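Can anyone check this?
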Amino acid sequence: MASIIVHGGAYSIADDVIPEKTKGCQLAAETGYKIMESETGSALDAVEAAVRVLEDNPFFNAGHGSIVNAAGDIEMDALIMEGSSLKLGSVFCVKNIANPVSLARRVMEKTNHVMLAGEGAIKFAKEQGFPYVSTEDLLSLEAKSRWNYYSKYVTVVQEIFASNKKDDPLSAKVDLAAPEGHDTVGAVARDRHGNIACATSTGGITRKMVGRVGDSPIIGCGGYADNELGGVSTTGHGESIARATLATRVLHLTKIQPPQKAIEEGLSFMKTKIGGTGGLILITPSGEIAKGFTTKRMAWVSIDSSRVMETGIDP
């Protein structure tokens, strides 16, 4: 039977947006799961649909609601992958489209490439008939508030990627009333045929350099799917996740230990070796669901093969 898990980002989520984060993730998970209830519904279709729901929700930093870079512009990244053939598509620094995850899928299905970036990706979106969406329409009031609140990129990283361990030196004092400076969205699914897929999408980090790319669209970092290993979507401090190749690191660890232990070991390695925090969601080849994070919070919702929904945000 089918199973799915989605996340809405691992970081210092403010108290007042928890209801919206939870509702958004629930709708995304339900949308993806419903697709897989039909005989023809695939895990690939499910993760794309789930992430599109989050990209269309201004409470998440992906698509509509994406944050603003140092120049006051919006650049978005996304990745999608399916585990039966290891086909994938990803886009870097795309502008003026609502659903980067769907553009990533077009890269996978309509080109001979796996990645497109910047002007090339934007040109491809136009050729594929993606509607133009102005920066102003993509920009939410929350994103504007974030850009005005955080005067420096380093401040964003220090505040929103604080550790969830009180005695950890990474656990800085975090103003949970401050505008959020980051989140990534993602989904992993396994359909009734045993096929696994993942997708990840983000607007990046507030006041990032123009052209900055984090882990989200990078294969093996922001996500990975292999029917023989499982599927992962990551979230957190992108530079740290990329350096740790967190997605594939954790998947390979699941070959020698239970998935929850593998997640904990992967996140511990990233914090100890690199000093970074984050989180991830995972589904094994048998359909087992696991998740973990070292940030203050991570919004997630899962629906297992028995159609049981679970929701979480705190450690």
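Reply from J.R.: I decoded it. The chain has one domain: 3-312.
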